[in-house]
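Handout for the seminar on molecular recognition.
Each group receives one record of this type.
Step one: identify the two inputs.
Step two: read the structure output and locate the region that could contact S-adenosylmethionine.
Step three: write two sentences on what you found, then compare them with the reference statements printed after the record.
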Amino acid sequence: MKTDKIVSLPLDKFISNSMYNKNSGYYMKKNPFGKKGDFITAPNVSRLFSEMIAIWIVSFWKSIGSPKEFNLIELGAGNAAMMKILIESFKKFPSFFKSCRLVIHEISPTLKNIQKKKLSNSNINWINDLKKIKKIPSIFVANEFFDALAIKQFQKKGGLWFEKFVSLNKEKTFFSEEKINMKNYERKIDFRISKNQNFIEYSELGINYLKQISKIIKARSGGILIIDYGYTEDKMKNTLQALYKHEYSDVLAKIGSSDITHNINFRLFEKIIKKLGGLKHSLTTQKEFLTKMGINERAEIIAKNQNFLKKADIYYRLKRLTDEKQMGKLFKVMLIKNQNNNFNLGF
Ligand SMILES: C[S@@+](CC[C@H](N)C(=O)[O-])C[C@H]1O[C@@H](n2cnc3c(N)ncnc32)[C@H](O)[C@@H]1O
């Protein structure tokens, strides 16, 4: 919609509208995964990724005392590639599988339909709100979930803070800014995010999820495994980006048709967890995590007795997941758990 007047939205409102608007949002109308889509995620690169996550989950469940009933909640399950392999793998651990209530938290109706089709033989609860999960120990897993949540950005100039907006008039869509009082924003997230920063980028929704999940973990036991691309430096960076057909594209060019995403600031996650108290975390790279979980050995086993082409394909995909120039280093794995839990497999 273009008008004579200028209409402005804060960056996060613009992103959530582009991505999740009921009629025109990116995730509401298309399946973004794979060759024909805009990006590919680890579970769609190789089943080995999800197998390693499955083994990790079973081991983590043991570390919290093998509860007879617990939730396994996947946040943002995409095309269900991971959940499908998780379930296949869990069947090899019957007492675990019997205790497991499978839950998916998914916002996109299109993807929810794809998930329901792909997982039609399994007993899964889809929930729109984490408040609806049963009050029992809960293990969360989030692969590329947090990067899909809308972000805010702020720039400090001459001692004053300005928030990034997206404006549109009859002719064009463009970035703009408005002077704001940072204290009001910090009060909302209950965190002094501007400390030692000249530029700020964060997802209010992401922080809310972190807080809500931490509360559940503290009250009922459990943990969250987060796998996502991101960085660990103290100074925040501008990581806003759009992807269209596997290439970077202009954020304002293909609104509703390109994926708008950002890199996770894992330092910020660490600081927030510390402030919440009662929790412990571990952080490593995807390469380290998958290697420690035995992905190379598993690749050898499944490559055995395969023909050359199949073998080459298995190792090509493995490299994609673990090579430092590909997903191995940029992608990080973070575990958040109760303070008294010393489980550290994969880290
Ligand atoms: C980048 S995709 C990753 C999908 C999948 N985990 C994978 O690795 O292939 C992000 C997923 O999160 C979902 N999502 C984004 N925001 C959400 C929200 N606020 N609540 C629930 N799901 C959300 C998207 O619809 C999508 O399924």
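Reference statements: The first strand starts at residue 7 and ends at 10. Residues 27, 41, 43-44, 76-78, 81-82, 105-108, 111, 143-145, 148-149 surround S-adenosylmethionine (CB under 6 Å).
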